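Please decode residue identities from the backbone states below.
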């Protein structure tokens, strides 16, 4: 994987896909991944852990017909797509003051327009300052549409009946109007004059592949043109973020990490956040998928490698990861004497997300740091005070915190649980103390249910 040569090297931008349920996020990612595997050069690596690389060679092949319309030369090595769509996972791509994601694709079903999770995605993208492109999906569902598989949008649109073209135009303008209500100024991509001020809308069909050439070209073009400073490859110790914590047979508890800067090597000392404070441990193995030879071999087994360069998705095996937290920052410590300094850095960073304050406010528990942060931000925006925010199941102590608040303010003396359980003794105490517990695995629904209860 070692490919660092000239000093001006850019790394792959990290791309995340968001959108409302059933608007086609997964289908779009599958189409992009499938295309990457079919069109890559022999021996080119497309598979990462938790992410898929679309190499530049593939983007250039797919976007070849566009060269006449949009001349571009790619300097980035490709685009690294995070495999799991949706904003719960996006929330974990957190780093101080923003996101590890460089750019996002917001998928909107053009036939349905803006929906609740579209709004939630916009909010979280804005709060993390992540630029995005809109994929107006399911153009193949427009009545009368004649599909031209894998063609650029600009050529398939010329083959459609004028009535169908008019219908598409109307749908795009409805979408532009809806988005404007949320402070998003957008326009069809080929009419955008300034990509810094206007969000491009690329009409696509994840099913037929129409419009995919433009979507990839626009993503590559925007990141390369406006983010070359951010994408400059950094030599030196890696920085990353923990996406997921999971069991790997033969290795015990492992972490899936997105490395966004620098290099990580086998035996490196790393620091990350755990349930009971920072964990310092040594990398026992770095695991990456074998290069795919053919699309029918889905994500294959992992093999150990000696080092991994940004940007990459990698599974890390190391002792003592049982308490690791998803959404935690991860640092490679350059020398062992600095381990306390890095532990302090991780604690400070995470302390902004996990906290207890002596105020009247709600108790919030979530399954990952990223979602916890997104939840607290959403509550703050609505002026709902938070007394305690933490990761993991609800404990008796936390129910007591809510009970104390309930004596002063019944509406704030409550618990909000995102994707975590209450321990049996906590559940019992909540019943005894009459502390209301709200549970959901969609952020906006959790807050909505609480607000409705307050109103009623």
């Amino acid at each position: 994987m070692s490919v660092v040569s000239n000093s001006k090297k850019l790394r792959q931008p990290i791309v995340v896909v968001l959108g409302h349920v059933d608007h086609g996020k997964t289908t779009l990612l599958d189409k992009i991944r499938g295309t990457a595997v079919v069109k890559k050069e022999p021996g080119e690596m497309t598979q990462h852990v938790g992410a898929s690389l679309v190499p530049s060679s593939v983007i250039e092949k797919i976007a070849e017909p566009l060269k006449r319309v949009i001349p571009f030369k790619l300097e980035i090595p490709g685009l690294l797509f995070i495999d799991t769509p949706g904003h719960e996972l996006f929330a974990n791509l957190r780093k101080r003051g923003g996101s590890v994601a460089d750019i996002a694709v917001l998928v909107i079903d053009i036939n349905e327009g803006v929906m609740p999770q579209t709004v939630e995605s916009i909010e979280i993208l804005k709060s993390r300052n992540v630029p995005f492109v809109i994929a107006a999906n399911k153009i193949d569902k427009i009545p009368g549409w004649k599909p031209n598989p894998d063609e650029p949008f600009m050529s398939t649109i010329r083959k459609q009946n004028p009535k169908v073209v008019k219908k598409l135009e109307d749908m795009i303008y409805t979408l532009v109007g809806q988005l404007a209500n949320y402070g998003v100024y957008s326009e069809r991509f080929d009419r955008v004059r300034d990509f810094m001020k206007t969000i491009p809308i690329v009409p696509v069909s994840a099913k037929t592949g129409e419009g995919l050439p433009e979507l990839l070209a626009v993503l590559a073009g925007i990141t390369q043109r406006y983010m070359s400073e951010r994408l400059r490859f950094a030599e030196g110790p890696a920085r990353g973020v923990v996406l997921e914590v999971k069991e790997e047979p033969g290795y015990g508890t492992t972490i899936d990490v997105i490395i966004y800067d620098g290099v990580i090597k086998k035996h490196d000392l790393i620091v990350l956040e755990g349930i009971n404070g920072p964990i310092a441990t040594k990398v026992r193995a770095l695991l990456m998928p074998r290069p795919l030879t053919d699309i029918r071999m889905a994500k294959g087994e992992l093999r150990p490698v000696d080092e991994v360069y940004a940007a990459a998705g990698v599974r890390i095996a190391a002792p003592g990861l049982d308490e690791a937290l998803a959404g935690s920052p991860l640092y490679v410590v350059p020398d062992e004497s600095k381990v306390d300094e890095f532990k302090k850095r991780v604690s400070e960073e995470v302390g902004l997300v996990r906290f207890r304050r002596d105020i009247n406010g709600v108790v919030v528990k979530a399954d990952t740091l990223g979602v916890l942060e997104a939840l607290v931000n959403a509550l703050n925006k609505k002026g709902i005070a938070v007394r305690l925010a933490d990761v993991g199941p609800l404990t008796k102590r936390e129910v007591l915190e809510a009970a104390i608040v309930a004596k002063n303010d019944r509406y704030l003396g409550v618990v909000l649980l995102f994707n975590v359980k209450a321990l049996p003794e906590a559940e019992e105490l909540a019943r005894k103390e009459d502390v209301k517990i709200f549970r959901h695995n969609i952020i906006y629904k959790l807050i909505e249910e609480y607000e409705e209860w307050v109103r009623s």
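Observation: DSSP finds 13 helices and 24 strands in the chain.
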